[in-house]
Specification:
A hairpin with a 7-residue loop joins strand 1 (2-3) and strand 2. The strands form four sheets. The protein has a three-stranded antiparallel beta sheet. It has a two-stranded antiparallel sheet with strand order 1-2. It is of the alpha+beta class. It contains six helices and nine strands.
Length: 281
């Protein structure tokens, strides 16, 4: 942090790497438009700098420059060409500094000499006016479209040339027959594909006497013992209900028998053992 050398004598943290003096934003725009400016702490950590445009690697003093909000400096034609190369539907938030990724458009509520100078430069570019909330204008920097020469009028009786057919897609495979002394012929799609190695898959021979061994297991049973899957598929719910009811009844009978046996073996339930009960003799 230090005092700027301009007549305003403002306290600032910005430092010009080229002139090695503290600068404020006012003199940054007026007296140091093409200088590399960072904070004083960054200059203490690393005083090396490159006075070249990050996009074209040419000296910044050769062409007109523009300074962004992050204090990075570019040639204005280089930055404008880089922005026009973005997709046409790119949102204003998608326009970022090519070097550090900071915001390219200044916010509406940001005031300062650097922001005002950047707005004044961006107003002249058609691609930047939507990001500033301004109406569109004709892009004078866009490259002209190539002119197409109209075809001469040959009259109504001129022959019409049919359009050329599109090239046919290549066939999946082809077979070339090479005969002795004959012209090689090409047959497209005449032979099926074969596995790698030229060997066909082996399959066992089918004999009539072996068919009985490949019958279904149900076919070995007598006709009376063969089950019908369709009839069984309609009964499982009924059988499940009957089995559940039988199991519940058996459980009730078992619990009742156990309770009766416990009651008979309990001595507290015997009248003769109770002192409060008198039995006449």
């Amino acid at each position: 942090m230090g005092l700027c050398k301009c007549p305003k004598r403002r306290v600032t943290t910005l430092f010009c790497f080229e002139h090695r003096v503290n600068v404020c934003e006012s003199c940054l725009v007026s007296a140091h438009p093409k200088c590399i400016v960072r904070s004083y702490l960054q200059w203490l950590q690393d005083s090396d700098y490159s006075p070249q445009c990050p996009l074209c690697q040419a000296p910044l003093g050769d062409r007109d420059t523009v300074r962004l909000l992050c204090y990075d400096v570019f040639h204005w034609p280089c930055l404008s060409g880089w922005a026009r190369a973005l997709p046409p539907r790119t949102a204003p938030a998608g326009h970022r500094c090519p070097q550090c990724g900071g915001a390219l458009f200044p916010p509406p509520n940001l005031q300062g000499p650097v922001a005002e100078a950047l707005r004044a430069r961006l107003r002249t570019a058609a691609w930047a006016r939507p990001g500033l909330g301004l109406p569109l204008i004709e892009d004078s920097e866009a490259p002209p479209e190539p002119e197409t020469c109209p075809e001469p009028d040959r009259g109504w009786d001129a022959p019409v040339t049919p359009p050329e057919p599109p090239p046919s897609s290549p066939s999946p495979h082809a077979v070339v027959h090479m005969g002795g002394g004959e012209t090689p012929t090409l047959h497209v799609g005449s032979a099926p594909r074969k596995p790698l190695g030229g060997r066909e898959p082996w399959s066992p021979p089918d004999h009539e006497e072996e068919k009985k061994y490949r019958r279904k297991p149900r076919a070995w049973l007598p006709p009376g013992f063969r089950c019908r899957p369709r009839a069984l598929s309609q009964r499982p719910l009924l059988a499940l209900c009957l089995g559940g009811a039988a199991a519940f009844a058996l459980l009730l009978i078992l619990l009742a028998s156990l309770a009766r046996g416990v009651a008979d073996a309990d001595p507290a339930l015997e009248p003769l053992n109770n002192p409060h009960v008198r039995v006449g003799h």
